[in-house]
From TrEMBL:
Tr-type G domain: residues covered: 1-80
InterPro entries named in the record: P-loop_NTPase, PrfC, T_Tr_GTP-bd_dom
Pfam families: GTP_EFTU
Gene Ontology CC entries for this record: cytosol
PROSITE patterns named among the record's database cross-references: G_TR_2 (PS51722)
Source organism superkingdom: Bacteria
Name of the protein this chain belongs to: Tr-type G domain-containing protein
GO molecular function: GTP binding; GTPase activity; translation release factor activity, codon nonspecific
Annotated coiled-coil segments of the chain: none
Source organism of the structure: Clostridium tetanomorphum
Length: 80
């Protein structure tokens, strides 16, 4: 079964960090990235690394038990 998870919250709420934890614990990524360390899997664009915030929505796909999940990390800054 396919499922979609959208992560929505205000800026600096930890959406990307939370998404990285999900991906790490489902063994989708090998290392937990951090936005402030500029090594986040989901914030891969240069502008996101420069500003330290998510600018573009990004998706990741992972498997858990018998389901496929589509995880969408969204910007929290209202101007995006």
């Amino acid at each position: 079964m396919n499922k979609i998870i959208g992560i929505l919250a205000h800026v600096d709420a930890g959406k990307t960090t939370f998404a990285e934890q999900i991906l790490y614990h489902t063994k989708t990524i090998k290392n937990r990235g951090r936005v402030d360390y500029k090594n986040s899997f989901l914030d891969s664009h240069n502008i996101e690394k420069q500003r330290g915030i998510t600018v573009f929505s990004d998706q990741a796909i992972f498997q858990y038990k018998s389901s496929t999940y589509y995880l969408i990390d969204t910007p929290g800054q209202y101007s995006y």
